[in-house]
Each structure stands twice: as C-alpha cells, then as structure tokens.
C-alpha cells in the first residue's frame, strides 16, 4: 500500500492530526507549518519532520495531502491554495467563513478533481455511529425531529490561553458560527440537508463572572432552528452556556434514540413504541461498539472522532471516491453559521438555505463576503454581538495579557 505523504498546518489543534496520520493508516507525516515558530520547531523535532513558517514554501514540499488545522475562519482560503497546488485536503471546521468562500471552495474541488474531506469529528463518536446504523436499519422509522447540543463553557483563564490576542477568532466569532458539532451528527445519522434556518442568539449576562473577566466580544450562545429537506425539524444549541455536554436526540415515526445526558454519556438510550402492532415496546440503555477499528478509536481524541476522520480521508484518496463528509456537506453545515446570524439580526426571521450542489445557487452568492472578522471589517458587515460593540473591562484585558505573555504571545 503506497504511503500517503501528509503535511499539517497548525501545531496546536493540528498536533492531534499529526499524531493520527501514521503508518497504521498507510499515511506518513512529512511536514508541519505554523507561524508560531517556537512551538513549530518543538513539535517538528518531536515528530522528526520538516517545518515551515511560510505556507507557500510548505506546499512545495513533496507530499500528497494537507490537513488544515489552522484558525477557524481561515480554512477555505488555505484549502483553495492547497488544492490549486495539487494536494488533497482535509479541513477542520469551519469549511468557510463566508458564502462566497463556500462557492469558491466547491468550484475548486470540482475543477481540480482532488479529494476534499470536512473533518467534522462529532459524527464519528460511538453513539452517533450507532444511531446512524439503527436509523438506516429502519429501527425508528422516518426522521421527524432532532436535537443536538454542543455546550462548552470554560473559565476566562482557560479561554485566554486558547485565544491569544483580542482579535483571536474565539474572541469574536458569532455564537451561531460554531454549529457543525451539533449539526454534523444530525445530518450524518439521518442523511438530511438543511433548507431553511432561523437563528436566535443568547447575549451574555452582566452578572456572569466569566463574562466580567473575559475579553470576548461575542455572545454567550445560540439556538438554531432548521427545516430539513425531508420536512423534518431540527434544533441546535451551542456554545458557552453553563451545563457542559454533548448530546444528540433523534425522533422517528416509530421510536427515538439519544445518548445519555448524565453518567455514561457515550451510552445509547433507545425507545421503540409499537402502537397497533403485535410487538412489545423496546426500552433499553446500552454501551454501543464502534463498527470497526474499536481499539484504535478508543484512544483517539473527541470520542474516537479524530481517528475516523483520518481513516475516511485516507480511504477517499486511495479510492478516488468522495468521502461522506465531502465538500458539499462541509459547506452546507458551515454556511448555517452566517445564515443563522443574519436571521438573528433580522428578528430571527426565516432564511432559505441555498443548495450549493448546484451552480445556479452558487452564482447568487459568489460575491457574498459578509463577514464578522474585525480585522477585515467593511461597511455592511456585522459586529460579533447582536448587542453591538463591547468595551472590554480593563481588568479582563490586563489578566488576559498576563496569560498571553506567559504563553509566549507578545501582541494585543
């Protein structure tokens, strides 16, 4: 089996991708790229591979594929450059920041004919793989309603360590944008696509001590309501509310299933209610198994999801067949973020979701560069919060700067 030579951009989150791109999958890590030279050299020495601070020089390295683990809002431009350089691409979330980026990304994948995989890892958690198996087997009937939550609060010190600089993306990305950890499992389990969206944003409360000590300019959380292409309804909840947890619930015409909210959260609760049938109801809680690679996935990050993204990426490159999480699904999940934010800013009114599988839909959005990025703000662009611009408290900024300096970041 010919090795797939892989380079990774981003040595923070990318370290997991680097560790996973190993010989057990027929992959060989050959290069790393990051602008943080000190950390880059440290990780490069650990893995014994070439290092680059210049992305264009990195792309000249003799390799077959690139894994993008750089900043959330920068994936699409780097993916396009890598594809144009003849490299297969696996991209972390989000696939694109703007709708125009989504259009360009899809067109580039189609033109180059190279493999693109969206590395949304939550669908591959053990309970989501089990729910997909049972749904496709018809165990709960037709999909009717789904809920998914990605609730991930943290204290201000930890957030500062993860987000060096006032303009780090975690400090300004609107609350609707980080939606694929919730939407990804729903689309994966049910094979449905979003067609309409309503976005609702939850502002921070001034009595929250984390907010008081934070430099974040975005809102606390968001709830997104979706109509899917089969007529089903979906509710998504994310990000910084109290009550940490990852949860997915699927209701069908004959039953329902969900992972547990408390205790053994990777266990599945399955309920099949057999009305007007010669069968007893089924009510069970059990620990599902991975359908394959159980031993390898058990030690991988994000509940095994990090392992399976590498597996499917390698398989897609070798087969020439697009992975399940291809560019169309990746962009479809990602554009829900900006569309839901537009809805929230318009009194949560309904917005149609364009189907970028068709060129006719893409043409309408090829110049849609509406973006909340404060470093590229232009007239008509949104602010990170529905409440407008936030004045960061002096103490919050001083505390964050101290943490940034301790971690080697010298900017503001």
Helix and strand layout, with pairings?
Blueprint: E1 4-9, H1 14-20, E2 27-33, H2 37-47, E3 50-52, H3 55-59, E4 65-68, H4 75-84, E5 88-91, H5 99-112, E6 116-118, H6 126-136, E7 143-151, H7 156-162, H8 180-190, E8 194-202, H9 209-212, E9 221-228, E10 233-239, E11 245-252, E12 255-259, E13 268-272, E14 282-286, H10 294-298, H11 305-319, H12 327-345, E15 351-352, H13 359-363, H14 394-406
Parallel strand pairs: 1-2, 1-4, 2-3, 4-5, 5-6, 7-10
Antiparallel strand pairs: 7-11, 8-9, 8-15, 9-10, 11-12, 12-13, 13-14
Helix pairs in contact: 4-5, 5-12, 6-8, 7-14
Write up this protein:
This protein is α/β, with parallel strands linked by helices and 412 residues long. It folds into two domains: 4-118, Rossmann fold, CATH 3.40.50.720; 123-301 and 327-376, Dihydrodipicolinate Reductase, domain 2 (2-Layer Sandwich). Helix content is 33%, strand content 21%. It contains 14 helices and 15 strands. It has helices at residues 14-20, 37-47, 55-59, 75-84, 99-112, 126-136, 156-162, 180-190, 209-212, 294-298, 305-319, 327-345, 359-363, 394-406; strands at 4-9, 27-33, 50-52, 65-68, 88-91, 116-118, 143-151, 194-202, 221-228, 233-239, 245-252, 255-259, 268-272, 282-286, 351-352. The strands form two sheets. A nine-stranded mixed sheet has the order 14-13-12-11-7-10-9-8-15. The chain has a six-stranded parallel sheet with strand order 3-2-1-4-5-6, with helices on both faces. β9 and β10 form a beta hairpin. α6 (126-136) packs parallel to α8 (180-190). It is globular. The mean pLDDT is 94.
